[in-house]
Amino acid sequence: MTAIDTGVQDLGRRHPEWKPWLAVVQEILREAANPIWEALVPARTEPQQSKVPLLAGARLALEVRPVRQLVEQLIGTACRSGTPKMATLEPVLKAELDVAALFRASLCQDGKHAKETATVLGADPEAFEAVAALVAVPFLLACNRRWASAKSVSWMEGYCPVCGAWPAFAEVRGIERSRYFRCGRCSGEWQAHCLFCPYCGMTDHNELASLVPEKGGATSVIEACKRCLGYVKTFTKLQGSPAARVILDDLASVDLDVAAFEQGYRRPQGSSEALRPADVCKALLAALEGSEGRRRKRKRDQTPDAIGLGVKRDLLERAVVADPNPEAFEEWLLNYLRTYATPELWGPASAMARAVFDEWRLAHSLEEFRIWLENGAPSDDTKDEKPRERPSS
Ligand SMILES: [Zn+2]
Ligand SMILES: [Zn+2]
Question: Is 198 helix (H, G, I), strand (E, B) or coil?
């Protein structure tokens, strides 16, 4: 019996109600040993650029056959698992699936694609989304293995240097107590600062809290950020978990997730790359329209306000037009300031650039902000209602 099988069995004993899902997870972890996935990983010779995950922009020559086989295998296991929701996936087996699109969506953690596909086929959207999310995992684990030496040793971002996902948990290792983040998708690992929120970059210890759950013991804590309300499960251990165990370790510590949830903290979903700066800036522009409306209504002289709004509007409008890539947004803002045409307003512009960058980073981790964006960034002001509270930095 392999270490994976033992791990799955152990979890099944502790949580018998999870057995249907564990069967699917076991399937995907076994598949990860299939050499076919490694052969699909493009070779890399150039060193990693700062802030850019290795997978970003990689050209994949995807073979449809193994992906289709894997999808059928996973759906088959899910259908046989005995839960009514998973049983609704049956029609997916008979459908002509666009497996390349499914794989791409799984790679980018685009749950919407899976949900829409499920709806069309009459399958349960959540069950299909959960299974579809796993489809890219064997490939991602292979990327992490093959690109081990291409990874930048000085990577200190909050997201995975290989695939760009948020960490599943952190490990504080050995007598040196060095801190590492672990990726729940590709199982990658990267060193992390102590006192650092991976989601919004917060480093102020007053804004970071350590929660020790009653039953967790001293080796498992929740490190939470009061600003963005994100959290990271943190385990003290001698060594890092083997790659194939990361998904199981994440599942096994679900008690910590529940405890964090009860305290009002959330684990951001999706990929760190999902939001483009231009989308966030568009939303901030819409919010600005609202506050300008409010300002006009107050009808008193607020020249400094008006100047500040003008500076912000200019910055946001340019960002929307330029549409910089997420990893290049900071550089774009610096460039914007370097070429700023009105020297006397450089101070407000620089403060505004920092504020916009903070909002963009914060937007990654706030589900509410995401929903607000997806709804076209409605502004309560424009509807002449009481302004809705929205977190800002
Ligand atoms: Zn990763
Ligand atoms: Zn944070």
Answer: coil
